[in-house]
Amino acid sequence: MGGPSVEERQASIASEPKGNFFYGRRYYVEKTRFWGYLRKPGQSAKNAKLVIINESSKRTPDRLPENGPAGRRYGFDQNYEYRLYGHYTGEQVYEVNSNQFLPEFKLTRYEVVNKNPGWLFSPNDHYNPQSITLIPR
User: What top-level branch of life does the organism fall under (predicted)?
Assistant: First the structure.
């Protein structure tokens, strides 16, 4: 997936802006409905949680048809990094296609931070759009 060295990533996280928001990394896997991983500012991705987004206040950036043209379909933003505003609802939501109960996050606003941030958990990360390959280690 490319990206910075481990040391560069650690320095970047240590110096990133803090605030009342979360950093989110979009993780698209075909036929799943989870959104991606969220972490608090200053925390390593190893502390990130895979979440389901509650869109009752704000839709996710990729809320597009699944069969649209390339670059304009659901999941187009795989691996984009966002600043997400909102809160965890305290609910656990069952994601049937991955057979997981995941925390629900109610989104109120988002901003794109980086469209090509590189690896998420390790420089050895491997992305496969048809199966879950990115998990915190």
Answer: Bacteria
For residues 86 and 70, give the distance between their C-alpha atoms in angstroms, rounded to a whole number.
29
Q: What is the pLDDT of residues 57-99, one digit of tens each?
A: 999 988 887 887 877 888 889 999 999 999 999 999 999 999 9
Reference 61, options 91, 31, 28, 30; nearest CA is 28
Residue 108 lies in a domain: yes
CATH number of the domain bearing residue 108: 2.40.50
Number of independent structural domains in the chain: 1
Residue 66 belongs to a domain: yes
DSSP string, the chain: -----HHHHHHHHHHSPPSSSEEEEE---TT----EEEE-TT--GGG-EEEEEE-SSS--TT-S-TTS-TTSSTTTTTT-EEEEEEEEEEEEEEETTTTEEEEEEEEEEEEEEES----SS-TT----TTS------
